[in-house]
TrEMBL record:
Pfam family, one: 5_3_exonuc_N
Record lineage: Bacteria, Bacillati, Bacillota, Bacilli, Bacillales
Family annotation (Gene3D superfamilies): 5' to 3' exonuclease, C-terminal subdomain (1.10.150.20), 5'-nuclease (3.40.50.1010)
Protein name: 5'-3' exonuclease
InterPro entries: 5-3_exonucl_a-hlix_arch_N, 5-3_exonuclease, 5-3_exonuclease_C_sf, DNA_polI_H3TH, FEN, HhH2, PIN-like_dom_sf
UniProt keyword annotation of Ribonucleoprotein present: no
The species this protein was found in: Terrilactibacillus laevilacticus
CDD domains in alphabetical order: H3TH_53EXO, PIN_53EXO
Signal peptide region: none
Chain's role: 5'-3' exonuclease acting preferentially on double-stranded DNA.
Length: 288
């Protein structure tokens, strides 16, 4: 099999990041129909720069669908603390998918699952035979790193990245990809609104994983822990296990995957015509 380099885009992370990078100015770069396009502009800039930097054979883009997922069934308060998206961002959710489709890149999502789960499913399957690079701003995806999968975190500005493999993750974070899940389970995640073990922060969680490697080993050696830590874990044992389920990216979404993985070859005449039809001809310069 011909080994390919596949770039998977975390569409939601790129779009939100792009929106908030410019929205504070009040300039939303509206198209001919008056629809804001500032987030799409930033998204396209991230995409084209990453394509030039990493030269993938194929690009895929994953999205959240909105609404409830299986995690809400496990924990109804999941992400309940999040505000509604800004009004200027809402119409860009659908428009950006039309833009991505016009570029010849496949939009991927699945009801009941998050973009992270689609990314996890794709990377798990495809990394068996190919090299996978995940472009995101979300550190949760570091748990997907393996020998053939790197996670590229966006840094401030455009074209600035930190590419994590297993060695760099262990060097900088002191943990393995699988331990990313246990770290989140112990300390919780305020952005996703689950508490983990109350009173255990990042430093304590990191120390526990360094000493005992996993939640199973921590529980097995509970009697050896300081009394205060013992009490906290015993009091929140059920939430610890639940938080671990919530933190784990599900890698078995029933996605149909085209094994041929056709290379991405932009057809610029089609792109420019589609952008004009979408009222976004002002964005065509980004993909020439």
């Amino acid at each position: 099999m011909n080994r390919k380099h596949i770039l998977i885009l975390d569409g939601m992370a790129l779009l939100f990041r792009s929106f908030f990078a410019t929205s504070f100015t009040g300039q939303f770069m509206r198209n001919q129909a008056g629809v804001p396009t500032n987030a799409i502009y930033g998204f396209l800039k991230h995409l084209t720069l990453a394509n030039k930097q990493f030269c993938p054979d194929t690009i895929l883009c994953c999205w959240d669908l909105g609404g409830k997922t299986f995690r809400h069934k496990l924990f109804p308060q999941y992400k309940a603390n999040r505000d509604e998206p800004p009004l200027e961002l809402i119409p860009q959710f659908q428009l950006v998918k039309h833009i991505v489709q016009a570029l010849g890149i496949e939009n991927i999502s699945y009801p009941g699952y998050e973009a992270d789960d689609c990314i996890g499913t794709l990377s798990t399957r495809l990394s068996k035979d190919h090299k996978v690079n995940i472009l995101t701003g979300d550190q949760d995806l570091l748990q997907l790193i393996n020998q053939n999968t790197h996670v590229t975190l966006l840094k401030k500005g455009y074209g600035n990245y930190q590419v994590f493999n297993q060695e760099l993750l262990e060097l900088e974070w002191g943990i393995t990809p699988k331990q990313v899940i246990d770290l989140k389970a112990l300390m919780g995640d305020s952005a996703d609104n689950y508490p983990g073990v109350k009173g255990i922060g990042k430093k304590t969680a990191e120390r526990l994983l360094k000493d005992y490697t996993s939640i199973e080993q921590i529980i097995e050696n509970l009697a050896d822990l300081p009394r205060g830590v013992q009490t906290k874990i015993k009091n929140d044992l059920d939430m610890l296990h639940l938080s671990r389920k919530l933190a784990t990216i599900f890698c078995h979404v029933p996605l149909p995957i085209d094994s041929s993985l056709a290379p991405w070859k932009p057809k610029y005449d089609v792109i420019h015509r589609s952008f004009q039809e979408l009222g976004c001809s002002h964005l065509t310069s980004l993909v020439r």
